[in-house]
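Q: Please design a sequence for this.
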């Protein structure tokens, strides 16, 4: 069963286990850190085991309970093993954050089919595989939370990211479908759409797209880039009992970027 919240704090995640795919850096680590601060036991699930180990050590050094499990989210058997290992080591799965993702920046006419498939398999199919595998464990304990990480490109177009945009648009529809299907099982499924967040990946994007920094600053009402900790609050809300009647929603965390239409 879902642990009873004895503190009276609707955002308290003590006793709950959270898997964060791609949680060893960037937005994923910011979310993992936020969930850990709220009391959750964190499982970092990613391919780069050295980087995951460093992320776990960083969380442990801050006094949090964390461990890592290898996963390639594009591989069905790897996903099954990750979920089984997480459940075996922690006894339960309460929260799944589907954050693992990649981007290949090319216009449509230059994008190879293998590149298209790689992005789609990682960003969209990976979220499907992880969610499907986690579902029976959540149902068994009486409920759970799935948080899918979308993007501003879930709702806007970009000439240089057709596969990424398509995958992140698909995340919204996958979120709604799972939310409708699993509401009866007390599993809430929601999406978070980060705006322009300062990460290693977006720093590289700024090198590849010469005027990107200026365009982002000029377009964002807050007048700045976000940082990874800006995703922590919404993740805690969607992972906690505070959001028990919120499902199928998508929440932008973008400094007002999408409010301009």
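A: Design:
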């Amino acid at each position: 069963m879902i642990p009873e919240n004895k503190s009276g704090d609707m955002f308290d995640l003590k006793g709950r286990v959270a898997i964060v795919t791609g949680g060893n850096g960037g937005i994923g680590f910011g979310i993992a850190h936020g969930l850990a601060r709220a009391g959750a036991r964190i499982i970092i699930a990613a391919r780069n085991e050295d980087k995951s180990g460093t992320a776990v050590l960083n969380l442990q050094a801050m006094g949090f309970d964390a461990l890592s499990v290898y996963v390639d989210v594009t591989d069905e058997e790897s996903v099954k093993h990750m979920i089984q290992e997480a459940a075996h080591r922690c006894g339960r799965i309460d929260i799944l954050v589907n954050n693992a993702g990649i981007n290949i920046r090319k216009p449509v006419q230059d994008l190879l089919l293998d590149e298209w498939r790689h992005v789609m398999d990682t960003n969209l199919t990976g979220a499907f595989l992880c969610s499907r595998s986690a579902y029976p464990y959540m149902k068994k304990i009486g409920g759970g939370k799935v948080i899918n990480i979308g993007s501003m490109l879930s709702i806007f177009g970009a000439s240089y990211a057709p596969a990424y945009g398509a995958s992140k648009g698909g995340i919204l529809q996958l979120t709604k479908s799972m939310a409708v299907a699993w509401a009866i099982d007390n599993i809430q499924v929601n999406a978070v759409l980060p705006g322009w967040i300062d990460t290693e990946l977006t720093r590289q994007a700024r090198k590849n797209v010469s005027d990107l920094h200026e365009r982002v600053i000029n377009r964002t009402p807050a007048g700045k880039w976000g940082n990874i900790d800006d995703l922590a609050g919404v993740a805690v809300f969607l992972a906690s009992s505070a959001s028990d009647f919120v499902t199928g929603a998508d929440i932008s965390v973008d400094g007002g970027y999408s409010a301009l239409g």
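Q: Thanks. Anything notable?
A: The CA atoms of residues 98 and 182 lie 16 Å apart. The first helix runs from residue 26 to 37.
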